[in-house]
Amino acid sequence: MAESGYQLVRRLEGQKRLAGLIAAHYGGALEIEKTKSQPIAWVSAGTPAEILWAMDFCVQFPEAYAATCGARHIAHGHCEITETRGYEHHLCTYCRNSLGASIAQLEGMSTYTELARPDFLLVSNGSCIMVTKWWEHLSHLWQIPLFTIDCPLVIPAYNEKDLTENVKRQCLDLITYLEEFTGKKFDYDRLQEIVANGQRSSQYYMAMLEANKHNPVPATFFDIMGHNFPNLALRYLPEAAEHYRLMTEELNQRIADKIVPMSNIQYRIYWDGIPYWFAIRQLSEKLESLGLCLVTSGYFDMFSFDRLDAQRPLDSVAEGVATMILNHNPSYKAKATEKIFRDYELEGGIFAYAQSCKPFSITMRYIAEHVQKQLDVPVTIIEGDLVDETFYDAERNNMKLQALAETLAARA
Amino acid sequence: MEDILTKFKDYCERPYERAAQLKATRNIKIIGCLPMYFPEEIIHAAGALPVTLFGSDEPITLGDGHMMTNACDQVRSSFDSLLKGKYDFLDGIAAIYVCDQVRFYLEVWQLDYPVEFFHQMWRPYKLDKSTQVFFRSELERLISSLEEFTGNKITDEKLRASIKVYNDSRAMMRKLNDLRKARPGIVSASDMARIVAASMFIPREEHNELLGQLLAQIEQSDAAASQSLRVITIGHPCSMPETEVLDLIEANGMVVVDDDFFTGGRYFSKDVSASGDPIDAFIDFYMNAIPCTTYHFPENWLETGKSFSPYADYVIDLMRQGQAKGIVVLKEMYCDPYDMEFVLMKKRFEEEAIPYVSIITEHGSGPLEAIRTRVQAFEESLRFI
């Protein structure tokens, strides 16, 4: 619970710098599309993007783009386009947004096309098998080649070395394919340089997140989550590490200056799952009114890239792809979530069920119950979806959040 | 003939009765396999009995308390059955990760309801040489886990003998399927599904014996071929389609001459080689599998201009080989791989001017009247082609 004598400053200085980085990334890609100066790849989260950067590809992330569309309330229009083409309403809404946006772009139906047109596609099924189907459809729409990385689910029966070797073999196939595709020899020194940048960026990213171990927090989860983008899409550049170094400095300075990001901080709360991008403002206001402060989330693990190691570039890239957080069995995820609760001294949890996202949602109840039993903390499961607003019932979710706050108050 | 068909029907109505009886009388280890594609031959070679775990038609009352409702009926219903004690006769559970639902959820079965033998297995989604190495180690891990659990050594000879038993089974099912293509209606679509499903519940040798008798009787039968419109049925990727829906199709002017069900053609279309190294034979079987919505064929996506839906090509070929006039697609709610593939499939059907109707079904959902209307409309449209 926050003490008195704290000053409320909602906006982080790093927000402006982040906006600049994002604008430069998307704008730069569109410029590359015009000049055809580099090949453009669309990749899914959990792929060895370092290999593409080392081959001088311009790399775009349709999942991040879907989140942007959700936040700008334009995803629903894209999803509707896919429904007219036969896609079922329950299918992943990131996927439907992306395919709808692609159809709009290809058929000249929209002027909102931030993603530069792709020449090549790369996907990994570490996050889910659904995403490989999504990328197959992108390949069909854009009529461009798709390379797939196959990642077995990480279970205790497996040796991590074997899982890494399995992905590494596929990375070597990818390199061979790209050498032919680009007509250029793969440069392992360049890969090492890129991995070194990613390693530095990831170290500062983790430091930024850890600032929120302080009570009261210098920023909420909703304030920080947008800052995942540089480590996802720009970690090959020194600018990403510099952004996180400055972010860490800023957060630590806010702690020293007794600055808090919201009024009425009463309880330290965990958020599980992908944010409902279209509902962030509404949820922020509701949570603030209830004194529920979102401190951190397991969602950040998706962007940590903490396996990157410049001393063993390709192996560490393969290791990160093979062991990404989503690609673990439920008991591992439950224990990882429990650890976050302990490390950040969390008092309750909000689990954001997404109707169309199976990897994040299907075992959510099990993980929530595990945390509740192990730590005796109250949790609630709210319902919605990633970017499709039609699945979201604000009133129902508000009641659940209210109940969580009342439970916490009764325990105080 | 009717007596044998009734026996198969009984097995499907009480799918695990025979397994439970065998466990009690002969102390055989029973291992439940979640659909699809688990290498039952290896369980058989270990001296255990593999049984396939389908859900039931009962309302889901316990399962939804443990998992979220965006899972398909097959996954939710079979988990519900587990919690209700319907699988208490099992000594173990095994599954291949065919989709995200099984992959991300399966371990919760073991956490909530531990069984003595629990085996999760990865079959690569991407079928190429680079993923074979890991898959080989998966097959070896399965063999050693089963050896440890049953105490029985699984030799190459035993594996080859089991493969032969299953190949004999598949060959007879293929023969039956050929007979219905040659003489439509000689075996109904619902009987066909029940015959194949029953093979997944009882010892394969017993099933082979019964099926052999049935084939002999059918071959001697002088029943005339149905003159109804020939169609094929596809879909329902890993559950058994509702036999009421299959009966409804055949009661409305159509006759099913082939299918792609897991409890149908998909199950028996291809053999595992019974000669040479058995592990190599299984690798070959899986790596050169018939197209499925749960496989990724890299060459189709790396080289533009190649087929964008090998699965659609496969079912179109089935339709043409069966001289069928159209395709009835039965879709299961919340089956992401199939729903995604269906969009591409639809495009291929339209390119080839293939008549089709797609029907979403869910166990226990019941509204057969709505399905009847669509089936009748489809039959009428076929009459004018």
From TrEMBL, chain A:
Matches recorded under InterPro entries: FldB/FldC_alpha/beta (IPR010327)
Keyword Iron-sulfur among record annotations: yes
Keywords in alphabetical order: Iron, Iron-sulfur, Metal-binding
GO molecular function, one term: hydro-lyase activity
Keyword Metal-binding part of the UniProt annotation: yes
Cofactor annotation: [4Fe-4S] cluster
Family: Belongs to the FldB/FldC dehydratase alpha/beta subunit family.
PANTHER family, per database record: 2-HYDROXYGLUTARYL-COA DEHYDRATASE, D-COMPONENT-RELATED (PTHR30548), SUBUNIT OF OXYGEN-SENSITIVE 2-HYDROXYISOCAPROYL-COA DEHYDRATASE (PTHR30548:SF4)
Name by which UniProt lists this protein: 2-hydroxyglutaryl-CoA dehydratase, D-component
Taxon lineage: Bacteria, Bacillati, Bacillota, Clostridia, Eubacteriales
Automatic annotation (TrEMBL), chain B:
Cofactor(s) of this protein: [4Fe-4S] cluster
Family: Belongs to the FldB/FldC dehydratase alpha/beta subunit family.
Keyword hit for Iron-sulfur: yes
Keywords (A to Z) from UniProt: Iron, Iron-sulfur, Metal-binding
The protein, known as: 2-hydroxyglutaryl-CoA dehydratase, D-component
Signal peptide feature range: none
Domain of life: Bacteria
Annotated organism of origin: Syntrophomonas zehnderi OL-4
GO molecular function: hydro-lyase activity; iron-sulfur cluster binding; metal ion binding
